[in-house]
Ornithine cyclodeaminase (Paracoccus salipaludis), 355 residues
Amino acid sequence: MNASQPGPMSLVPFVSVDDMMRLVLGIGVETVLTELGGYIEEDFRRWESFDKTPRVAAHSDEGVIELMPTSDGKAYGFKYVNGHPKNFQGGRQTVTAFGVLADVDTGYPVLLTEMTILTALRTAATSAVVAKYLAPKGGRTMAMIGNGAQSEFQCLAFKTICGIDTVRLYDIDPQATAKAARNLAGKGLTVIPCASAQEAVQGAEIITTCTADKQYATILTDNMVGAGVHINAIGGDCPGKTELHKDILLRSDVFVEYPPQTRIEGEIQQMPEDFPVTEIWRVMTGQAPGRTDDRQITLFDSVGFATEDFSALRYVHDKIRGTNLYQNLDLLADPDDPRDLFGMLDRRSASLKVA
């Protein structure tokens, strides 16, 4: 082959932010949430086939950088993701991410993609898929406490997957609530901005908490939570960061993704090591009960787990096939002779001299 040209096995599909937006808008946001939810549920149902480990986290005073890997024995996926609450003050996202899907047999990546938008979609889809098993039947109103970058995705996922028709918004920053209300206008939801968290939860069968501050916080107090509600707690996602008063946990049946990670990062970090929880995959496969009565308080203590990102990577890999919604990156060295990497470099040197 020409020493200056990429080899046939050097190219890896790359989905940029613009490509991801075109993909999502071409399919439709709510359709993507529904389809992605199907992939996530499918992978939860085959939970035992995955390698599982708590994410690898590097903490600092300003935030956290994490790697989230998993494999089902055929494909391997990982996500790089950060969480820096003060970033928005400088015009940056609190959370950014990218991810890779690879073939286990060869170790070659088959996809490199942005995952900032994709993480928001997969988090919302996961929340709503879990709520199918835990939320009260016929619930139509959700309180959305924390109206940052994730909030609209959560609201639309619960609309399309769970059938809610009303969202009650609250954020300590009124501009965030105004932003969310503006973005949700015309999306088929009744949107009610609220002046406090207490006001937001009034009449809500589902309560979603999604705040960013990296601290022990009390977004919900025990007296705010009535019987029969489902709490979708997605803001607690690292050590030292919680949103719920511990008394709420004592009154709730708590469901988690992967206990070894959630006990470090989730709401249950406030509780003893033997505090009882149910893994959500067991509910989805019929091995454990979800919601059992009308007065039960269910709590999904969600911190995000690598299988959900794996599902999202699988989804995008399938969806871009046969489209122009990606670019081929010259990412992998592909010498004529796999043993002659130096020769490829040396021949390239010669071609540069000729040029």
The chain has two domains: 11-117+308-338, 127-304. The chain has a mean pLDDT of 94. Residues 127-304 form a domain with the Rossmann fold fold (CATH 3.40.50.720).
